[in-house]
Design a protein that fits this description.
transmembrane, 2 domains, cell membrane, cyclic-guanylate-specific phosphodiesterase, transmembrane helix, alpha/beta, TIM Barrel, EC 3.1.4.52, Beta-Lactamase, 17 helices
């Protein structure tokens, strides 16, 4: 009776609360979601400008852009290698074009911005401007070479980059990029054939680095329709959550347990075990390392997934002890395999708070030294989902870790807090593309564009790229086409206990040796 009463009461309370709050909350939530999408569109555009700026910086550093054959060849090479820039031009101080990587593109111009019509970036390094063309408008980024000449990159910011809206609102909205004077330099208009509505709701995000803003216009009736659907979904979710909460409450009432005390008991009993998911080369399938993932093995044999205890461990301050515990165990057990293969790398997740904690570097060195494993075989994955509280201190810690041979990876890239400036300053050597983009890469062209941009940026910063959550061969093919070389996911193996991971390595190495991809002496080295 107690359990039934708890479930019924919980469902009733959740439904009543949802019914009371949903009318006011859904409108605000929808507005917040679309506002966040405008930020996503702006961040993608800023990343495109960052990429163009890096190319122009590299060209200026190489030597004089004097319209000679060699200079034009260098311009064409960078246009060919890039995914964002479609032409690079040398202009004089008045803004007149002196030469272009592809002179044919000049035929499409219907004018050219004068220097005083351009808009300067916050750091003063770049100028943005609109290039009128017969087929629409192009987006220009200019960087000065000296007092007489400048380089201008013409960017390819198209619908794929600005396609950020969910399916239900895609044909009922448009996304635009505009300069401070209101000129539109790019836009995504999926329903271009229809007349624009008389009234729209606008969501605008203004860049603090570039003279640029992204705006999403949505028809008001579309928002209302979405609210009706959201109301039904919210009420359904409230009923389900109420039932789940009621069951949890009933279980708690029958067996009261302090979750933090249970966590401490499990830590003392060493119930948290390291599981390892292999990382592999996309083209060959060779195993090159693994990521340590925590699992809670209960005394009764139940295996508790990480989402059921990691948030509590982080909020209660137990995540540091848990991390050290599974890292020590994994290094101790896999030490023979790591000493046998000096290129094998083992990565472990580190929260930003743990990274910035007192004595972290010294504690890490002691753990690795006690395992007789090279520091160059240990990778620390710092997640982007949690913001770094002190970027300057984090940069110093990462630099110190690098001096001792440790490698730093930035995890969950593309969906977290870090922008390009954070990635540049932090000094990480590995960039891990989130599963969100891997899932979408075979069905959404915008995901392909984002992955290509991340790979291009990683190359500019001399970083390697690893894709997470690979489950299909089609995803592997798409990632290879984007330039990604390494990955991990269920396509090769789920996370395995240490014993099963060792068996997996033995089978893989034996198969590779039999196929002639590696020799037996290399296995024994």
């Amino acid at each position: 009776m107690l359990r039934v009463g708890a479930v019924v009461a919980s469902v009733g309370i959740f439904l009543a609360g949802a019914d009371f709050a949903v009318t006011a909350l859904i409108g605000d939530q929808t507005a917040r979601q679309i506002n966040e999408l405008s930020k996503v569109a702006l961040r993608r555009s800023e990343a495109a400008i960052d990429s163009a700026g890096a190319i122009l910086n590299r060209l200026v550093a190489k030597g004089p852009m004097d319209c000679s054959a060699g200079a034009l060849q260098a311009l064409r090479l960078h246009v060919y290698q890039g995914t964002i820039v479609k032409d690079i031009r040398t202009v004089d101080r008045e803004g007149s074009v002196l030469c272009a990587a592809y002179s044919e593109t000049l035929e499409f111009d219907n004018g050219w911005a004068r220097r005083e019509e351009m808009f300067q970036s916050a750091d003063g390094q770049l100028r943005l401007f609109r290039v009128p063309q017969f087929t629409g408008a192009a987006f220009g980024v200019l960087r000065d070479i000296d007092g007489q000449r400048s380089l201008a990159a013409i960017l390819r910011i198209d619908g794929n980059l600005l396609d950020v809206m969910p399916v239900g609102l895609r044909t009922q909205s448009d996304v635009t990029l505009t300069l401070p004077n209101g000129e539109q330099v790019a836009g995504y208009h999926p329903d271009a054939s229809s007349r624009p509505p008389a009234q729209t709701v606008a969501f605008t995000t203004v860049s603090d680095r570039y003279p640029l803003q992204a705006t999403i216009h949505v028809r008001p009736q579309s928002l209302s329709a979405r609210q009706d659907m959201a109301y039904l979904l919210t009420m359904l979710a409230a009923g389900v959550l109420g039932g789940v909460f009621g069951l949890l409450l009933a279980s708690y009432l029958n067996r009261p347990v302090d979750p933090v005390a249970e966590l401490d008991r499990a830590l003392a009993a060493h119930e948290f075990k390291p599981y390892v998911q292999p990382t592999f080369r996309l083209k060959t399938g060779d195993i090159i390392g693994g990521e340590i993932l925590a699992r809670w093995e209960k005394p009764d044999g139940r295996l508790i997934p990480p989402m059921s205890f990691i948030p509590l461990a982080e909020s209660s301050g137990r995540i540091e002890k848990l991390t050290w515990q599974i890292l020590k165990s994994a290094l101790r057990e896999l030490q023979p395999e790591m000493r046998q293969d000096k290129l094998f790398k083992l990565s472990v997740n580190i929260t930003p708070r743990h990274l910035l904690g007192d004595g972290f570097v010294d504690d890490l060195r002691k753990v690795v030294a006690s395992s007789s494993v090279s520091t160059r075989q240990v990778v620390l994955e710092v997640t982007e989902r949690e913001e770094l509280a002190d970027l300057n201190k984090a940069t110093d810690v990462v630099k110190e870790l690098g001096e001792f041979g440790f490698r730093i990876a930035l995890d969950d890239v593309g969906i977290g807090h870090s922008g390009l400036s954070t990635i540049q300053r932090l000094g990480a050597r590995i960039l891990k593309i989130d599963k969100f983009f891997v899932d979408a890469i075979t069905r959404d062209q915008s995901a392909v564009v984002v992955v290509q941009m991340l790979v291009a940026l990683a190359r500019e910063l001399d970083m390697s790229v690893v894709a997470e959550g690979i489950e299909q061969q089609e995803q592997v093919d798409a990632l290879i086409a984007c330039g990604v070389e390494e990955g991990q996911g269920y396509l090769v193996s789920p996370p395995l206990s240490l014993d099963r991971f060792k068996q997996f390595l033995d089978v893989h190495n034996a198969s590779a040796a039999a196929e002639g991809r590696i020799s037996k002496p290399e296995l024994a080295a």
